[in-house]
Design brief:
This protein is an alpha+beta fold and about 350 residues long. The chain has 11 helices and 10 strands. Helix 5 packs across helix 10. The structure holds 3,4-dihydroxyphenylalanine.
Amino acid sequence: MKEKLDGIKRDAIAMIESAETTAQLNDVRVKYLGKSGAISLVMRDMANVPKEDRPAMGKLVNELRTAVEGALNEKTELLAEREEELKLKAEAIDVTLPVDGKRTGTLHPLTLIRRELIDIFAGMGFSVDEGPEIESDLFNFQLLNIPKDHPSRDMQDTFYINDNIVLRTQTSAMQARIMTTQKPPIRVVVPGKVYRSDDDTSHSPIFNQFEGLAIDKHITMGDLQGCLQTFAQKIFSKDTKVRLRPSYFPFTEPSVEVDVTCSMCHGKGCRVCKGTGWVEILGAGIVNPAVLEMCGIDSGKYSGFAFGFGIDRIAMIKYGIPNIKLLYENDMRFLKQFN
Ligand code: DAH
């Protein structure tokens, strides 16, 4: 019996020593100390040992059990330590490795231009306002001297929400809102999104406009021209010239269309200006006295000028962007060029 116990002890200790993982060690624990493990079986066999030998045998079996348990516990601790070490090694981060360059965002070209425009006009004493994109027919059309069924509504392909509500087709709608709520002197610019059912390389159903309005005593076409001249030189280049051509808008009288010398060829003639040396950039004029009166401003006492243009168009001319869609597709390859 004693030999048998020594054999068990020798085998168990050898297995414990050669175990390399806690899983293997657990198998050893089950094999010897489990319910039907070798040591448990020996203890169950005690019933067959002669009565007088039992105390001595019991002592031996207990010693065996203690020795195997002790060896198991010691090795368990050792393996746990080793496994923890391996895990830490595997999870280690090499802080000296070169990293992928961090990608920082850039401002959208329309944001860049809008900010530049606001700076330019703020420098001339204009404040900045914003208004709703879902607008009533009253502000978008009627108070701007465009009654219902007026033929000039055909100039703009309007998205109607119902008979009286539209997606604003022009930031000019804010002229009416401002004139009906503020007293002159007024000097304000309004950047914002506008909508029209129109879609080609130079038109997008959603685009951005920039409106200007100045109302005071003795405002003339000369003030408008001077203001636009300053704006054009600042946004394009110092040698930019401005030209006013007679035109028609219901809310201005007289009305003008405004061209600037081409910023690509400086007036020599190129693809951008179609060889003319000039590019059209905006509509403007003296605020129609009928509009002043409809909005509650005394046209005998006050006059004003107004202008409006597409921020997209300015960006396209300034950066040489051939298709307006590029401004709305959010293609990173395009956007990251503007820093
Ligand atoms: N709202 C006009 C358009 O979208 C542009 C415009 C023309 C605005 C003349 C004005 C203006 O303020 O006076 O085509």
